[in-house]
Specification:
By secondary structure, the chain is α/β, with parallel strands linked by helices. It has 11 helices and 65 strands. The strands form 6 sheets. The protein has a 33-stranded parallel sheet that branches. The protein has an 18-stranded parallel sheet. It has a 7-stranded parallel sheet with strand order 39-42-45-49-52-55-59, with no helix packed on it. α6 runs antiparallel to α7. This is Membrane-associated oxidoreductase.
Length: 738
């Protein structure tokens, strides 16, 4: 057969196989090597028949316009030489199936109707800017090169249809395997049942800024890169769902193993049975990812070794649910799972083991915004050098529920950090265990809960910060701590400034074995609380005496506000008597533990006297009784004076002469008993007079008369003092001052 018109003479003569190929292409048939056909000669090596790449190129150029629209289709040939298709505009497709391609395939900025290398072996494909007006397939292909430019290089390529790489086995000892930065695929992109081995920091598979119009699937892959990332997909856009299933990826370096930052997914992201390792950097980097549907992470085994995190998801945005289940994430020198600043909807963690290191925490959700509830069940977080869970500033529009959660480690800044968190509805801890060998167990300064907060928690802390810290926290509903079990730390409860909108229910038996009863407590030094400024509406069904016992024996020192708060609660329920008992106990505690609050020793003694006789102003009836008793004692003194001889014929108290003066010569006239008692009362009254002294009075000219006068003066001074205290107590002045 003669060469077709315009073909290079170098292709003369055409082989039998090439002639058959030209004839098949003219009618749209696939040229297939039939090994059993004795009329077809083999190549020189006795293997596949040889088709020169120049023949394929000339066929695609179609100078005489005889090529069938179905294009050039070859199966089972050895393609010799470099196949150069650069800048060609071919409206037909090219299919090289199960072929051995000895040279390079170059198709930079070419246009072709379709391209398939399924089942073929090749050294390299260079196709930057290639446009495939149809589908492309590398299914079952084998590619191997030793060049830093990559094995398959398709930067800025555009495939209008589907791109299938299922079963592809590709390797590169000096660079990347698949370089597809900026590639556009109009339909689906499949990476399934693949084996990829590469080197270098450009990644084994690089699809950064690629745009996938349909679904993107990584399924049943093994990717290994001992000196860089396994996959780099920063800025990639996926119009449909994104799947990472049954995949094992091993990488190295600070760029991470799976680097997919700022990826946008129009559908769901499903990660299942994913194993990722990196001994010198992050394992998974999803920072800035945006998913318009769910992000589901199941059955993962993630191990990284970098201070920035093993599984990084900072600032991610998930429109629907974020689920992490049956997975383990570990990092020996940093955060295990970092979702700081994430914008999420419904969040659910179940059966997850998280192990990290450092002050940034093992699990980090600081500043995250959740539009729906957060649920964690059977989650274990471990950090021996920092917080296990760092959730400061998290905002949840819904319930916050932890069930069977365990947070263990050592951190001076708190094991579970919830400071500044905002929970719009209920917060519930059930069977939660928090242990910290160096500091606070639960650190929740400024926490806000929109409904009830149920604290079913076993907590162990250390140091002086408190086992459970809730300073400045606000619980709009009920705070229930009946299932709270506490160990360690100087203060088990650091609740200064806590505000509870409903009942406050405490585990009295947990803090004090005698259930918070008794005037003395042998366990006062074991568990201490700080509730200064704590405000609540009621104590529920608890006995006010239990809370009073805590204030007296377990508070860190004398604090007036907790007593005043308890008294106001009892007063609001109509128990004025209980309220007075609380306020009396407050003054007693002040005398015992706040002696420096008095001006001096005399003031302290006077305060004690006031408490003894008047109940610190809250027992005015007792003061009235004492006042009456002192007044009666004055009457008794007057009566005794009327029975005491001062000299012959005269008494210390007797009738006066008509002149109003006592006679030194005449015999004295005794006063009647009523007159003597009236004399004592008249003399003892601070104000007013009965007029009895004009008829019967003390004889101050005698020693006995002077002595009784001094006694009466002392009684009068006491009455002055008692009257003043009575008025002060009645007008509430003493209570306000105290």
């Amino acid at each position: 057969m003669n060469l077709p018109s315009g073909w290079p003479s170098a292709l003369h003569p055409l082989t039998e196989h090439e002639i058959n190929l030209i004839q098949a292409a003219a009618v749209g048939d696939e040229w297939t090597y039939a090994e059993s056909d004795p009329n077809i000669s083999h190549g020189e090596d006795g293997a596949l028949p040889i088709i020169r790449s120049g023949v394929i190129r000339e066929l695609l150029l179609d100078r005489d316009k005889k090529l069938d629209p179905r294009g050039v289709r070859i199966r089972g040939a050895a393609i010799s030489g470099n196949l150069a298709l650069d800048h060609m505009d071919v409206p037909y497709g090219l299919s090289l199936v199960n072929c051995e391609i000895s040279g390079e395939i170059t198709a930079e900025y070419a246009k072709i109707g379709g391209l398939s290398l399924s089942g073929s072996r090749f050294s390299s494909v260079y196709a930057d800017g290639l446009r495939v007006n149809g589908d492309m397939s590398l299914e079952g292909a084998f590619g191997h090169s030793d060049r830093d430019t990559g094995t398959v290089r398709m930067i800025l390529a555009h495939i209008t249809g589907q791109f299938v790489c299922d079963g592809l086995k590709v390797s590169n000892k000096s660079g990347s395997c698949l370089l597809m930065d900026g590639m556009r695929v109009g339909a689906d992109l499949f990476f399934r049942n693949m084996e990829v081995s590469a080197t270098g920091d450009r990644g084994a598979i690089c699809v950064s800024t690629a745009t996938i119009g349909g679904q993107l699937t990584f399924h049943d892959l093994e990717i290994d890169n001992p000196s860089g990332p396994a996959i780099i997909a920063d800025g990639m856009k996926v119009g449909g769902n994104f799947y990472l299933i049954a995949m094992r990826a091993s990488g190295a370096g600070e760029l991470g193993t799976l680097r997919m930052m700022n990826v946008t997914v129009g559908g769901q992201v499903l990660i299942d049975k994913l194993t990722v390792e990196n001994e010198s950097g992050s394992a998974v980097s999803f920072d800035g990812m945006k998913a318009e549907s769910d992000l589901l992470c199941r059955n993962m085994a993630i191990r990284g070794n970098h201070e920035l995190g093993a599984f990084r998801a900072q600032g991610i945005s998930v429109a629907k649910g974020f689920e992490l289940a049956k997975s383990s994430i570990s990092n020996d020198c940093g955060v295990a799972l970092d979702c700081e600043g994430a914008k999420l909807s419904l969040v659910r963690f179940a059966n997850v083991d998280i192990s990290g290191a450092g002050n940034r925490g093992a699990l980090r959700l600081a500043g995250a915004h959740l539009e729906r509830p957060l649920t964690m069940k059977d989650v274990e977080a471990l950090n021996e050098s920092g917080p296990a869970m760092h959730l400061e500033g998290i905002q949840v529009k819904g319930n916050f529920a932890w069930i069977g959660v365990s947070a263990v480690g050592a951190s001076e800044t708190g094991m579970v950090r919830l400071s500044g968190a905002r929970i719009s509805e209920q917060m519930d801890f059930t069977d939660v265990v928090i242990e910290n060998g160096e500091g606070t167990a639960l650190h929740a300064d400024g926490l806000e809960v929109g409904a009830n907060f149920r604290m079913g928690l076993t907590a162990r802390g250390a140091g002086g910060g408190g086992t459970i810290r809730l300073p400045g926290a606000k619980v709009s509903g009920q705070l229930t701590c009946l299932d709270l079990r506490l160990q360690g730390a100087r203060y088990v409860l650091e609740w200064e400034g806590l505000k509870v909108g409903s009942s406050l229910l405490l585990p009295y038996k947990t803090i004090c074995p005698d259930m918070g009863r008794g005037e003395h407590c042998d366990n006062a030094s074991n568990f201490r609380i700080n509730v200064d400024g704590c405000v609540y509406v009621s104590l529920g069904r608890s006995d006010w005496r239990q809370w009073l016992h805590f204030l007296k024996h377990h508070s860190i020192g004398y604090q007036a506000q907790p007593y005043q708060q308890l008294a106001s609660v009892e007063r609001a329920t109509g128990h004025d008597g209980y309220a007075k008992n609380v306020l009396i106990a407050q003054q007693q505690d002040r005398r015992t533990r706040a002696q420096k609050s008095f001006d001096g020793r005399f003031s302290w003694l006077l305060h004690g006297l006031f408490g003894m006789v008047a109940g610190f102003g809250y027992r005015t009836s007792r003061l009235a009784g004492v006042l009456l008793a002192v007044l009666l004692s004055a009457g008794v003194v007057g009566y005794v004076a009327g029975q005491t001889d001062t000299r012959p014929g005269h008494l210390a108290a007797e009738r006066t002469a008509q002149t109003g003066a006592f006679s030194n010569s005449a015999q004295g006239v005794p006063c009647s008993s009523i007159e003597l008692i009236g004399l004592g009362i008249d003399r003892g009254l601070p104000l007013g007079s009965t007029g009895l002294r004009s008829r019967c009075d003390l004889d101050t000219g005698t020693r006995w008369g002077q002595a009784f006068t001094l006694i009466i003066w002392a009684i009068q001074a006491t009455l002055w003092l008692l009257a003043t205290l009575a008025i002060a107590g009645y007008t509430n002045l003493v209570r306000k001052f105290s």
